[in-house]
Design a protein that fits this description.
- The chain is α/β, with parallel strands linked by helices and 300 residues long.
- It has 3 domains: 47 residues, no CATH class; 127 residues, 3-Layer(aba) Sandwich (Oxidized Rhodanese, domain 1); 93 residues, Oxidized Rhodanese, domain 1 (3-Layer(aba) Sandwich), CATH 3.40.250.10.
- The protein is built from 12 helices and 14 strands.
- It has a 5-stranded parallel β-sheet with strand order 3-8-7-4-6.
- Helix 10 links the parallel strand 11 and strand 12.
- It starts with 6 loop residues before the first strand and ends in a 17-residue tail after the last helix.
Length: 300
């Protein structure tokens, strides 16, 4: 048998959308893995298969297309970058969006988004899990994309898009969102509530619709009593489960995913959306009624 002091290096980094309980350590010993790794505990073949597969979800939609792209070949990074690193005036930006049926992606800071963003755009903040969520929500790698970024961060956005295979950026809004506002173009805002405010409201209005966009494993661990769970990655495919005449109070774990969800819902015609600031992490610090806690199987 192998000795416990043998050094083990990971074959994959933490944070992958296709794994569970993945450590962020870059090195370990076999002995420590044998003591702590759930998949290395004594069990039958059937138990092992069940343990490894429980809690896993389907890979992001762009995974298989990336595999095909890797085989067929793709434009060089320089070509993609030069295509996307084009400053467009408000008029050029608006015309390109219409003529090319481009998807407008707003990548600005989380705290700025609810105050105002370009109407019908999809918000995915560059300071969060930008690339994984872009890949999960935008299936077509050749989708024409226009970028709204904080001035000075356009290069970073284009680079991170290209790294996961999105090779068709058409440019960015020169002057950022402020230029759009100054030109009098249509904007959206997202209503928000503080967690304590919502907890008090929910106590008096228990029939209010709470939409939890965390993953199934997170929801099963613990959630707000009465909440509806539609994971963000599934939201676009399950909009038929929601009613455009209802008001939805949306949350995730910390506030990033819920704002992505809010932008999707508003884009699809759900006008009565309220984001709960701080998400479930903040809500559980209030006196809101929660489900019984269960030890997490997976974060997916």
């Amino acid at each position: 048998p192998l000795e416990d002091d043998i050094i083990v290096y990971p074959g994959h980094g933490a944070g992958s959308a296709c794994g569970k309980k993945m450590s962020d350590e870059t090195v370990d010993t076999l002995g420590h893995q044998k003591r702590t790794n759930y998949a290395l505990q004594p069990m039958t073949r059937e138990e092992f298969i069940k343990e490894v597969l429980t809690g896993l979800t389907a890979p992001p939609k762009y995974f298989p297309k990336n595999a095909v792209l890797n085989k067929k070949g793709y434009d060089s990074f320089e070509e993609v970058f030069n295509r996307g690193y084009q400053a467009l005036s408000v008029e050029e930006f608006e015309k390109t969006a219409k003529d090319k049926r481009a998807l407008i992606i707003d990548t600005r800071a989380l705290e700025d988004m609810p105050k105002g963003y370009v109407k019908n755009s999809l918000w995915i903040g560059i300071d969060g899990q930008f690339a994984p969520w872009l890949g999960a929500l935008v299936e077509d790698l050749q989708q024409p994309i226009l970028i709204v970024a904080d001035p000075g961060r356009e290069e970073e956005v284009i680079t991170r898009m290209a790294r996961v295979g999105y090779d068709n950026p058409l440019g960015y809004l020169d002057g950022g969102f402020e230029a759009w506002v100054k030109a009098g173009k249509p904007v959206e805002t997202i209503d928000e509530m503080e967690p304590e405010e919502f907890a008090a409201f929910y106590k008096e209005n228990p029939d209010a619709k709470v939409l939890d966009v965390r993953n199934i494993g997170e929801f099963d661990t613990q959630h707000v009593e009465g909440a509806i769970n539609i994971p963000l990655k599934d939201l676009q495919d399950r909009l038929n489960e929601l009613d455009k005449n209802e008001k939805y109070y949306v949350h995730c774990a910390g506030g990033y995913r819920s704002l992505i969800a809010a932008s999707i819902l508003r884009k699809e015609g759900f006008d009565n959306i309220v984001n709960i600031k701080g998400g479930f992490n903040a809500l559980k610090e209030t006196d809101i009624k929660l489900s019984e806690y269960h030890e997490p199987i997976s974060e997916l």
